[in-house]
Amino acid sequence: MKTYLVTGGAGFIGSNYIHYMFKKYGDAIRIINVDALTYAGNPENLKEVEKRDNYTFIKADICDKAAIEKIFSENEIDRVVHFAAESHVDRSIKNPEVFVQTNVYGTAVMLNCAKAAWELPDGSFKEDKRFLHVSTDEVYGSLDDDGGYFYETTPYAPHSPYSASKAGSDMLVKAYMDTYHFPANITNCSNNYGPYQFPEKLIPLIINNALQGKKLPVYGDGKNVRDWLYVEDHAKAIDMVQEKGRLFETYNVGGHNEKQNIEIVKIIIETLRDMLPETDARRAHLTEELITYVEDRKGHDRRYAIAPDKIRAEIGWEPETMFKEGIRRTIEWYFANEDWMKNVTSGDYQKYYEEMYLK
Ligand code: NAD
Ligand code: TYD
C-alpha cells in the first residue's frame, strides 16, 4: 500500500485531489495530509473523509522543519504531492513576504526532508519514490492577446510576487533534480475552478456576490484572459503524472479553455438565472447591471494559455469536463453548500473584502 504525504490538502485543489484519490483508490492507498490551516485551509472541505482509517490529518507548517522531519521519520512515505502555498495574487501584491516564506522556504524544507528520508548511502534514492511539485502557468509571465501558448520550454518571466515565489520554488525543485537526481516532477497548471474554492478568487467571488445582489467587480477592461480547468481534471493529471510521467520532467496542464474575465462573469449570471426557479426572489436582481468595472490589478497579466501537448502525447491525459458543464456543477455545489460559504465569509473575510473592494 502506497503512502501519500499531501501538503496543503485542506485548501481548494488539495481537498479536491484527496476526494479524487479516495474515490479512485479507496482503501488501497493511505493519505497523510499536512496543512497549517491558514485562512485558505478549511477542515470542512474534508469532513467526508476524516473518519477513514487510511486518512490522517496533521496540523503543521511546512516551514517547521522538525514537524516535517517527524512525519517522514514516523512514516514510510512513497509519494509527496506538494500543494501547500500562499496562492492569491492580490494578497501577494499587498503582503509579499509570507509568499516567499511559505512558497520558497517551505518548498526547500519539503525537498530537504524528502531527500533525507529517501536517499541511500551511495547517493541514489530508494526505489519508487516520487515528489510532485504542484505549480502554476503564471511562472511563464503574460501572453499577448493575439496568440502564442505556454510550453514547458517557455522561459520563466513571473510578474507578481505570487508567481515569482512559485517560480523560485520550481527552480529549487529543478535544482534538486539536476544536482542530486532527486526523483521529482513539476506540473504547471492553468486556472482551476470547482467546489471548495475560496471566494477571493474570481469565480466563487462572482457566484457569491451575484447570489446576494452585490456588485460584481471586474478589474480593468475585463478583457484579461485565463485558461480555465475543472479542478477534478487537474487532480487526475497530477495522479497520472506521478504514476506514468517520466521522472525529472515538467508537464503543463490545461484544457484549451480560454475566456476573458468579462465572459466568465456573464456566463455565471446567465447560468444562475437559468438554474434558479422562476419563483426565487434572487432572480430579480441577477442582471448584467451588477457588473462594475473597478481599478485594475497592479501588473495585471494579460493572458495565460497552456499548450497541453506533452501531457496528452506522453501520458494520455485529456480534460473530461467542458466549461459549460463544469460551471453548472460548480454553481450546483455552491447552492448545496450555502453554509460552507457563510462560514468562510464570516470574520476575517469581511475585513479582506472591505480593504480590497470598498476602500
Ligand atoms: P489554496 O490557497 O486554496 O490552498 C492552500 C493550502 O495550503 C491551504 O489549505 C493552506 O492552509 C495551506 N498552507 C498555506 N501555507 C501553509 C504552510 N506554511 N504550511 C502548511 N500548509 C499551508 O490554494 P489552491 O488554489 O488549492 O492551490 C494549491 C496549489 O496549486 C498551490 O501551490 C498553487 O500555487 C497551485 N495552483 C493553483 C491554481 C489555481 O487556479 N488555484 C492553478 C495552478 C496551480
Ligand atoms: P484570480 O481568480 O485571482 O486568479 P489569477 O489572478 O491567479 O489568474 O483572477 C482571475 C482573473 O480575474 C484575473 O485576471 C483577475 C480577475 N479578477 C477580477 O476581475 N475581479 C476580481 O474580483 C478578482 C478576484 C479577479
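^ thymidine-5'-diphosphate complex. The first strand starts at residue 2 and ends at 7. The mean pLDDT is 97.
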